[in-house]
Amino acid sequence: MNWNLNDLYKGFDETYEADLKKLEQLLNDYKALVKNEKGLSDLALLEGYLKSQEDLERLATSLYAFASLTTSTDVTNQVALGYMSKLQQLLSSVTKENVQMSRFIAGLDLDQLEPQSPLVKTYRYGLNLTQAGAKHLLSESEEVIYAKMRQLASNQWSQLQGLLTANLNVDFDGKQITLSEVRNLAYDHNKDVRKKAYEAELKSYEPIADAVAMALSNIKREVTELNAMRGYSSALEKTLEISHMTKETLDAMIEAMKDFRPNFAKYLKAKAAYLGHQKGLPFYDLFAPIGKLDKTYTFEEAQKIVLDSFYGFSPRLGNFAKKAFDHQWIDAFPRKGKRGGAFCSNQPQIRQSRFLLNFTGSLSDVSTLAHELGHGYHGDVIQDEQPLNWDYPMPLAETASIFCETIVMNKLFNELEKDEEKLSVLEISLQGDTQVIIDILSRYLFETKLFENAKGPISKDQMKSWMLEAQKAAYTDGLDHDLLHPYMWLNKGHYYSAGLNFYNFPYAFGLLFGKGLYSLYQQDPQSFLKNYDRLLGLTGKASVEDVAASMGIDVTKKDFWVTSLNEVNKDIELVIDLMKKTV
């Protein structure tokens, strides 16, 4: 099943070109507005700016989405790559004007202007962020130079990583398969297949490791230099700012996660014993299926499971998923040239979403389908907001996806009667929790180390060493230290962005916040449903702390995170008990 992009564009045709010219005109109009040759009042200029940004948001989103979605399923498509580059150049052509407007907004008395303008009131939160961020701006000429050079620096290094991994041939049992395919074999029921796939995957990275390490090293060096110029103390400070989240909240969550490492190690050692290992769980068996749910799923079966689960929660959620299936919003299966992993691309300007999967039929793939549709549901709610409130920070981006994943896995579990089947389903869910809490912790530790040393080149061997150190620190003795994964930095595209660093802790936030929300839902479903969509709608116009507070949650306190982790620990104890019963 391939997705249909026709509601965006039918190709890079006359319509696309016409909209590209329209975008150029909007950008020229914006430049003229910033010059303020008409001598507009502060309020009129601010409102004119906000209206122009709404128009640009609608059109640029469609143009860029069509090009980027096209390259996601064909990473070598030079036409699409060319349009992406052109769009980046066009949007960076107003860098000077953006800087001027940020400084203009920084000098305004928003308390005085807000009562005079519904538009200012609608976008007050974003305007407050603009005022706070203005102090980190470089000079206009420096911002223009960086915007242009970034296209030739970090953006190109990121594309290099994507190209090398998407086109990587992996030699497995004498056949050439894609990286996505070999990584999916980690879920195979045959232990020999899992081990051989792990070995083949690690070996396949060797020819490209130097180039990808150079890409990652240069991206992080660029980020470090720029942040220093802007006056940020660290990349983490910048990430927290754009995450709309305080360090107090992050520290509370990370400390709670560290406290629960022994609980996860207990589960991993129990799984190792169940599978016959003596020294902890080998990395290649992290995703080994256990229990007796010896089944793979067709995509049609996965659809039914998701729809039944979603309709059991609310008609709106079920109707949204049905629309995604019926209207070909999903590109489901792996193929050569298609990027790995899975994502959701919300397109609120056309009131739709698109979903990329690499579905091979595992229970984990069913969970991933629910997860990505959850992102889409978030987009379905947020599209009712005004355009400049469509974007929401990464920590809150995982809220609806984790919630939907939980709905599906809990429904599957509650319908089972045999212990071996319950073990299989619950352990799949726990695998995901372990990845999002413990493996994410390892990635956070790794990236922290990376930034601490990002003033010079970093070799692949150093990166491999730091990744192993981070995995040992996060998984403790739950994994076999002789069989870890030194290349986890190479295959995770999240590391390769200059604009968004520490693309890891938001997943842990999303999981634990989602667990906390699901607990509230179980206590009072009707009351929860009245407030849930409101919470999702707030995510583009309030801080993480204020969004959580709308449901009576204080995320700055460790107690909340411990409560959520205790919910995960219940699953750990139940899985261990079921393993003892079924061994």
How would you describe the overall organization of this protein?
This protein is mainly alpha-helical and 583 residues long. It contains 26 helices and 5 strands. It has helices spanning 14-35, 42-73, 78-92, 95-106, 110-113, 118-122, 124-133, 140-152, 154-166, 179-184, 191-205, 209-230, 235-242, 247-259, 261-274, 299-313, 315-326, 363-382, 394-397, 399-414, 419-452, 460-475, 505-523, 525-538, 544-549, 558-582, and strands at 170-172, 175-177, 330-331, 343-347, 352-356. The mean pLDDT is 94.
Number of separate strands? 5
Inertia-based shape: globular
Share in helix: 55-70%
Unreliable runs, pLDDT <50, ≥5 residues? none
Instruction: Give the mean pLDDT.
Output: 94
Main β-sheet: number of strands, strand sense, barrel status? 3 strands, mixed
**Beta strand %:** under 5%
Calculate Rg over CA atoms. Answer: 24 Å
Walk across the major sheet and give the strand order. 3-5-4
* N-end to C-end Cα span: 39 Å
- Summed up, the helix count is 26
Output the structural class.
Answer: mainly alpha
